[in-house]
Amino acid sequence: MKLELHEKVLTNLFDTNNKLNFFDIGSCEGLSSVRYLNIFKKCNIYAFEPIPNNFSEVLKNKKKHGLNNLHAYEIGLSSKKGTATFYVSSGKPPNKDTPEDNSTDFGNKSSSLFKPGKTKEVHPWLKFKESITIKTDTLENFCLEKKVETIDFIHMDVQGAELMVLQGANSMLKNIKSIWLEVEKVPLYEGQALKTDIENFLIKNNFKLILNKVNHIAGDQFWVRQDYFNKLSDKTKSHLNSISKKVALKSKLSSAIGKIKDRIKKT
Question: Which residues contact 201 (CB under 8 A, 6 or more apart)?
């Protein structure tokens, strides 16, 4: 299996033979969890997916791959425990005849706690035909109930609700070592926190940005808790810094090209 860039970073941060705690928040069909458990076979993964159809796919993939250490929960993590309205996405991009990345769907990956905003302009093929009521919990409360004391890595894909999940971590924030999440520069969803909001929150809570793949609209970022980063070997730090610089250059180029394309569309 060829490793994705952030997975390469993970293998630099953690020993693949160690028992670790990973959280897959907004796991959709659980395919990211499957990948992580192929790399970190001894880790425990807590996967959260609130949409019933998606959650059933998580369970199918758990059974298919025999992943006893994948623990799946049909809830959405947020800033408070209770219930919330969830806007369900669907649709298929043009000229796509087969599912990408072996997933069962195309349009099921953009559902959110927020109403769709400019996401329909960026991806006009996306549809939001229904909303459902889901159960929500906070990361802090979940960890207290399940007696999870440390989170080594969080993979977060929650379509605009990133800050809400982080705010719900509260006292657990100091026990999180690394986070991979998507941020947006433009409001793809109404009322969502944007890139600067999330960066300010994480910096204030002593996280260091080591990977930035954000273009002119959105992209992924990898954050590591500063005190954990400080404990890494000089060799590992140097390697991570080298990766970070290369990615930053590509991100700037991608952003510049994207802005030019947007200007051309408007003329």
Answer: 163, 166, 167
Q: What is the residue range of 15's domain?
A: 5-266
Side-chain half-sphere of 211: how many Cα atoms within 13 Å? 23
Domain count, the chain: 1
Share of the chain above pLDDT 90, in %: 78
pTM above 0.85, yes or no: yes
| b/e 117-138 (16+ beta carbons within 10 angstroms → b) | bebbeebeebbbeeeeebebbb
**SS3 for 154?**
strand
The two three-digit tokens of residue 166, written as one number = 């982080």
Token couple for 237: 């730090």
The pLDDT of residue 244 is: 83
Residue 190 token pair: 């109404």
Q: Provide the pLDDT for residue 253.
A: 64
Q: What percent of the chain has pLDDT over 70?
A: 89
Handedness of CA 161, 162, 167, 168 (dihedral sign): positive
pLDDT at 26 over 60: yes
Kindly report each contact of residues 189-194 with a partner whose C-beta sits within 8 Å and lies 24 or more positions away, as own/partner. 189/112, 189/114, 189/115, 189/116, 189/117, 189/119, 189/159, 189/160, 190/114, 190/115, 190/116, 190/117, 191/114, 191/115, 192/112, 192/114, 192/117, 192/160, 192/161, 192/163, 193/160, 193/162, 193/163, 193/164
The predicted-structure confidence for 86-127, as pLDDT tens digits, reads as follows 999 999 888 665 554 445 567 889 999 999 999 888 889 999
Domain with residue 235: its CATH number is 3.40.50.150
Alpha carbon of 96 to those of 92, 93, 101: distances in Å?
Answer: 7, 6, 12
